[in-house]
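If you are new to this repository, start here. Below is one unmodified record pulled from the training split, so you can see the exact layout before writing a loader.
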Amino acid sequence: MTSVEDQPVQEVVTEIIQAVKQAREENGISRYRLAKLTGLHASTISLIERGERSPSLFVMLKISAALEISLGCILSKNESQCRCEDEPVASNEDSVQD
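And here is the target side for that same chain:
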């Protein structure tokens, strides 16, 4: 396994973004729903997932909290083993109030 120090920063950011997108999709959460859960705009989520915007640490913390996955697990690429089993992830069917 290659350490973070050996990888260019953009590669690390790309891997993190891919892990977030995978976690979102595995849990059936739409970009719109994730935006509502985080307080971000849906277009911001889309830009982040396409790699057109690099998320700040604050934004990553909001996203990881909404997905109920620790940021450490996302960074270690073991997000499937880090799920909080006590609380289900909010589904698309959950009502979202504007």
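Two things worth knowing about this chain: The chain has a mean pLDDT of 77. Residues 68 and 84 are 6 Å apart (CA to CA).
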